[in-house]
Amino acid sequence: MSTADSLRLLPWTTPEGKPCYLSTDSDDSRLSRLADDLEEAQLDSGEQVLAGARAVLSDPKAGERAVRFSLTRATECLADLLRIAVSRGERIPRREP
Fold first, then answer.
1. What's the average pLDDT block by block, 10 residues per block, for the chain (97 residues)?
2. Which residues share a beta bridge with 21?
3. Which of the two ends of the chain, N or C, has the fewest CB atoms closer than 10 A to its terminal CB?
């Protein structure tokens, strides 16, 4: 679905935290497949972090360190998942009215 005039938001950033984009005419390029694989790993990680966060929140004895760690990881995963959603949303073809 990629075209030469469209850019794909990649699931990583520069060391300075700026977004990275890919320009390719093939969704099957090496870098496209790498991005797909990383997105899949990020989605899997998000599921694991969500399960862990739920466990911490359901434990009335969970201390501040556990809650803070869980929230930190959850915010990291949420940022990754939002980047994936934006990237995939930008690749959905726009329908003409």
1. 67 95 89 96 97 97 97 97 94 81
2. 9
3. C
